[in-house]
């Protein structure tokens, strides 16, 4: 699968790829999605419904401030949510058809390595939501919360908006970078191989460090596509999540030496 331009790193656990390689991953991901559109788009639709339900729950409970952090936390949990998509692409690579039961099979494998990786991502997500809540309370704690529709305008009119954005964005960027490094190929690897979650994380970090330009582009494309998908109230996730999930499988296959 990897092109002739790819070269093996000294450690021979990861490959070095060209900076524009993410476009190939997206092309292959689109092919897999179209070949399995019923299951792939169904998974995307189910997660869209989950996003609606979570937003409604937070709104009804009076925690409007948590909607944006929880939405941002989607980037953290996305690698775990895409596990069935990795399995679909793995089986497609082997020429095997996939049912929904086949797609969720990795979650039922013995050893619990995927569950452990999911726990790590969940803890990071909860940590992010907690920090976001503390930052919001620090900068806007003395202000009565308006309705969800008026919340953005109220924040724009506050003199605390700029420091809130600087500190919150800076902290979020660091956390997102760490999460991306540990999750870039670790979960596809756990779907494909019998390795520990710690070994998968280590190799994922190696792959990111060995391919800084390609992975920076890949991370930027994920943020761009997912951000655009979230704008129409999560509707775009029906397509974007399966596309990125399948493409992530091909990123793993390109980056990690078998």
Automatic annotation (TrEMBL):
Coiled coil regions in record: none
Lineage summary: Bacteria, Pseudomonadati, Pseudomonadota, Alphaproteobacteria, Acetobacterales
Domain of life: Bacteria
Segments traversing the membrane: 38-59, 65-86, 134-153, 160-187, 216-244
Keywords linked to the UniProt accession: Membrane, Transmembrane, Transmembrane helix
Annotated organism of origin: Belnapia mucosa
InterPro entries assigned to the protein according to its UniProt record, in alphabetical order: DUF2189
The name this protein goes by in its record: DUF2189 domain-containing protein
């Amino acid at each position: 699968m990897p092109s002739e331009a790819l070269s093996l790193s000294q450690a021979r656990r990861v490959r070095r790829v060209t900076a524009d390689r993410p476009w190939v991953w997206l092309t292959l991901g689109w092919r897999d999605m179209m070949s399995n559109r019923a299951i792939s788009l169904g998974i995307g639709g189910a997660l869209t419904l989950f996003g609606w339900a979570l937003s409604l729950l937070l709104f009804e409970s009076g925690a409007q401030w948590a909607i944006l952090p929880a939405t941002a936390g989607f980037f953290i949990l996305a690698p775990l949510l895409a596990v069935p998509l990795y399995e679909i692409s793995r089986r497609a690579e082997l020429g095997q058809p996939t049912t929904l039961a086949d797609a969720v099979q990795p979650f039922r494998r013995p050893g619990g390595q995927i569950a452990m990786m999911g726990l790590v991502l969940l803890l990071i997500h909860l940590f992010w939501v907690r920090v976001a809540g503390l930052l919001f309370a620090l900068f806007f704690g003395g202000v009565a919360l308006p309705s969800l529709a008026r919340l953005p305008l109220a924040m724009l009119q506050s003199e605390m908006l700029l420091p809130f954005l600087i500190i919150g964005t800076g902290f979020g960027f660091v956390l997102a970078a760490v999460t991306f490094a540990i999750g870039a190929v670790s979960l596809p690897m756990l779907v494909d191989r019998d390795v520990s979650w710690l070994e998968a994380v280590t190799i994922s970090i190696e792959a990111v460090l060995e391919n800084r330009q390609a992975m920076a582009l890949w991370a930027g494309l994920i943020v761009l596509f997912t951000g655009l998908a979230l704008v129409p109230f999560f509707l775009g996730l029906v397509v974007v999540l399966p596309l990125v999930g399948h493409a992530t499988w091909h990123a793993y296959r390109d980056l990690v030496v078998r």
